[in-house]
């Protein structure tokens, strides 16, 4: 310890004398690390913003420093000069490199790199307003035998607009963003024994490692220059190294895996022995089954009411048929849930920050679902028959096991956007369990969703309660077209929250084109003409192709809800230190449960009055288009999807997690109960 202290003192002395000796050092009089300032959009939108990049290019042999420089060196010092209504967040650093000099470990950049910072513009600034941005920066340029302090003053002028990206810089920003570490989005724990720190990182076994290294970004939990040992135990990566001066304090770190991939971690001391893996799996599996069962009562299942009703009606054809269709329906639900879960685990393993129901964060998927619902709705309404069409929604209208399977598949796909009771913790656990165990949890979720239909198929007493098939089914089919048309309206509304007005109009046109093709097919079917399905097929191909080419155009970011702050974890911290309660909730436009809760409990005059009287601060996280920061925050609270409702009492940083189904007076009672 005395040697390390002496090194720090000598380093500080050298840095103090460096300005006096700079003229005599190698590289004097020239810029050793060139810098420039760029914006991803020269016309950021009001109440939106853009990403700023500070590009740094060291000369050969010289290097700059990471935000935590290691045993020696200095991190860049940034001073922003911004116009009123504009703010810039903390910079994000790309993956660093290690540099050893004797017994000293430094964290450096020897190649061109860029720091990224998010610029935010307040609401109400008129379009066309110029925004002069200036950055004064001090940083250290070093090589093995010398260090030179450098300064730079960078500036650019933006103009408030609609967020159009700078096409010339798009490839550069993509490269710079890819160089950043990905948030792990899962808890990381460590233990300390005999001055050895052991860190356990959930990491799929199929992710390769190439000279991995753990960089501490805060605290002094580890010794930077100490050797690090890496060991894989299935889907768990174990890192062991020498404990530092504050070995039990939580710390942030960046784990470089190699091949340009790295993860940012939040590590906390394990205060109790970790739960046995089998027990954790069984609890998660039970929670998934219970959550899937209760999901049948949640608003998210309402859009598939028609399909379920027709399936139940067909189930009355006989005990053997009922059992076969129940098993096929269950298989369809479970296969879909496992497929979605597998894709989610694979994408997260690649560094993507995604959560449950990620498929509805993509407007292209919503468009395809809209067109599929259009086919089902017009078929139920009698516009045409699907006996000749062997693809798409026709699969859900087949009799027997095939129709039941595809009915279950579509039911699971549409029902997954919501997170019900018991389901939240189960899916959150599934994302940090080994892949095989996680897939079992997703299968359990599908089993729970299908359980009522499965019980109906294997319980003769319940089957006898079902009416016998007959002419009434044709009338029921027409009536059940109504909720399918309502589903189309709901999907159009969700799509309208994610794309521009032009793209939404084009989507409506595509649905009309598809309906025209279905009508022509119906006419040809009734006239017994050959190849009756041809108009529908051509219309489907054209509507899908035209629609997918249009919905890639994103809409202007939606304006915030009145009296609510948009989610920003940096702004949340000072709110929690204040003397007012904080209500933080996460929602998405495609989450039916979220929308019902907002109408029933959140967006009510009585709730607004109670919040105003108690001084409650409301912060809202919108996950409609997906958001990596929100996904990571949800994961830290054991969730993989929305809704999530948190209530922070003044003086208590640990929130109260509210139920996922809110009553009319739930929030009012909390506001009145303020101590």
Total helix count? 20
Mean pLDDT: 81
| Strand portion | 15-25%
Question: Which outline best applies?
Answer: globular
- Taking pLDDT < 50 over at least 5 consecutive residues as the criterion, the unreliable ranges are 1-24, 272-276, 388-399
Distance between the termini: 48 Å
Major sheet: 8 strands, mixed
DSSP, total strands: 23
> What is the share of helical residues?
40-55%
Structural class, by secondary structure, is: alpha+beta
- The radius of gyration is 29 Å
Task: Characterise the protein shown here.
The protein is of the alpha+beta class and 675 residues long. Helix 5 packs antiparallel against helix 10. It is globular, with a radius of gyration of 29 Å. It starts with a helix and ends with a helix.
Summarize the structure.
This protein is of the alpha+beta class and 675 residues long. It is built from 20 helices and 23 strands. The chain is 41% helix and 22% strand.
């Amino acid at each position: 310890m005395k040697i390390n202290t002496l090194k720090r003192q000598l380093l500080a002395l050298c840095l103090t004398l460096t300005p006096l000796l700079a003229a005599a050092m190698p590289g004097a009089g020239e810029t050793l690390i060139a810098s420039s300032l760029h914006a991803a959009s020269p016309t950021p939108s009001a109440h939106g913003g853009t990403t700023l990049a500070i590009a740094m290019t060291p000369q050969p042999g010289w290097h700059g420093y990471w935000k935590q420089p290691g045993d020696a060196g200095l991190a860049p010092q940034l001073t922003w000069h911004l116009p009123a209504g504009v703010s810039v967040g903390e910079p994000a650093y790309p993956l660093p490199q290690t540099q050893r000099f004797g017994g000293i470990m430094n964290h450096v950049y020897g190649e061109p790199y860029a720091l990224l910072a998010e610029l935010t513009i307040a609401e109400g600034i008129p379009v066309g307003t110029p925004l002069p941005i200036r950055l004064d920066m001090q940083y250290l340029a070093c090589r093995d035998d010398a260090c030179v302090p450098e300064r730079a003053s960078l500036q650019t002028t933006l103009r408030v607009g609609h967020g159009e990206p700078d096409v010339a810089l798009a490839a550069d920003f993509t490269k710079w963003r890819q160089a950043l570490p990905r948030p792990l989005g899962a808890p990381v724990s460590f233990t300390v024994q005999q001055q050895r720190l052991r860190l356990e990182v959930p990491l799929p076994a199929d992710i390769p490692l190439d000279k991995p290294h753990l960089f501490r970004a805060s605290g002094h939990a580890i010794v930077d220059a100490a050797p690090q040992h890496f060991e894989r135990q299935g889907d768990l990566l174990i890192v062991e190294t020498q404990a530092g001066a504050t070995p039990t304090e939580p710390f942030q770190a960046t784990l470089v895996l190699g091949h340009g991939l790295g993860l940012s971690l939040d590590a906390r001391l394990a205060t109790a022995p970790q739960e046995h893996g089998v027990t954790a799996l069984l609890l998660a599996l039970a929670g998934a089954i219970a959550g899937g069962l209760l999901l049948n009562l949640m608003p998210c299942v309402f859009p598939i009411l028609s399909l379920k009703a027709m399936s139940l009606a067909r189930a009355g054809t006989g005990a053997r048929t009922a059992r076969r269709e129940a098993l096929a329906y269950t298989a369809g639900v479970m296969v879909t849930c496992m497929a979605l879960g597998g894709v989610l685990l694979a994408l997260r393993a690649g560094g993507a920050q995604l959560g449950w129901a990620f498929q509805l964060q993509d407007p292209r998927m919503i468009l395809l679902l809209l067109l599929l619902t259009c086919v089902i709705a017009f078929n139920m309404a009698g516009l045409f028959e699907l006996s000749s069409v062997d693809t798409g929604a026709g699969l859900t209208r087949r009799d027997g096991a095939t129709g039941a399977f595809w009915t279950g598949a579509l039911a699971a796909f549409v029902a997954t956007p919501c997170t019900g009771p018991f389901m939240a913790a189960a899916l959150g656990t599934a994302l940090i369990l080994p892949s095989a165990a996680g897939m079992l949890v997703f299968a359990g979720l599908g089993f729970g969703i299908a359980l009522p239909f499965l019980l109906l198929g294997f319980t003769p007493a319940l089957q006898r309660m079902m009416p016998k098939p007959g002419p009434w089914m044709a009338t029921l089919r027409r009536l059940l077209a109504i909720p399918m048309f309502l589903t189309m309206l709901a999907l159009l509304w969700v799509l309208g929250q994610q794309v521009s007005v032009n793209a939404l109009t084009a989507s409506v046109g595509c649905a009309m084109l598809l309906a025209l093709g279905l009508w022509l097919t119906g006419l040809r079917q009734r006239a017994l003409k050959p190849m009756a399905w041809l108009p529908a097929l051509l219309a489907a191909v054209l509507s899908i192709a035209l629609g997918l080419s249009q919905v890639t155009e994103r809409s202007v970011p939606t304006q915030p809800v009145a009296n609510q702050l948009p989610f920003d974890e940096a702004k949340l911290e000072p709110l929690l230190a204040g003397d007012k309660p904080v209500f933080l909730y996460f929602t998405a436009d495609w989450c039916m449960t979220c929308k019902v809760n907002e109408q029933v409990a959140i967006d009510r005059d009585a709730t607004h009055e109670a919040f105003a009287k108690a001084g409650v601060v409301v912060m809202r996280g919108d996950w409609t288009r997906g958001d990596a920061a929100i996904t990571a925050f949800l994961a830290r609270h054991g969730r993989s999807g929305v809704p999530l409702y948190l209530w922070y009492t003044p003086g208590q940083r640990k929130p109260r997690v509210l139920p996922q189904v809110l009553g009319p007076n739930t929030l009012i009672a909390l506001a009145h109960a303020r101590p």
